[in-house]
Amino acid sequence: MIVLGRIVAPFGVRGWLKVHPFGDDPLKWQDMPHWWLSPDADAAEGNWRACAPEATRLHSGNFVAKLVDVDDRQGAEALVGCFVGAMRSELPSTDKDEYYWQDLIGLRAVNLQGESLGNVATLLETGANDVLVVTDGDRERLLPFIENVVKRVDVAGGKIHVDWDGDW
Known about the structure:
This protein is mainly β. The chain is built from two helices and 13 strands, in the order E-E-E-E-E-E-H-E-H-E-E-E-E-E-E. It folds into two domains: about 1-90, Elongation Factor Tu (Ef-tu), domain 3 (Beta Barrel); about 105-160, SH3 type barrels, CATH 2.30.30.240. The strands form two sheets. The protein has a seven-stranded antiparallel sheet with strand order 4-3-7-1-2-6-5. The longest helix has 5 residues, at about 75. The protein is elongated.
């Protein structure tokens, strides 16, 4: 399951939800036949519940959504905190140099000198840019996921090539 976002609050009284997306262009989610919901982002595939999106839109800078059969505020409140996921086969394909976060987790970060800095444990959304959290034993590095730092992503080869000194 690829985690796309999280339901953060009800929106209004007719079952709409405010959703925090973890990536770009959540309006494309409307084209997916199902959203999968779970209170645990790491839940096994069988523990996710399928829901059909009825409508999505942007409202005052927020992403809001209406799911089929969620018709009142009480139903929306019951979903607060749930993660929104999708089956890999139901996701829109990515463009060149676009990646789903899930594809980056576990890749080895290697600097331009060929030194391994560790593996990508997770990513953080900071507002300005995404940040790779790279761990190597007890050491944790935060590398901005920007063009000046990330030089090449090789998902098939299991590496992210970065311009980052091993002592930083």
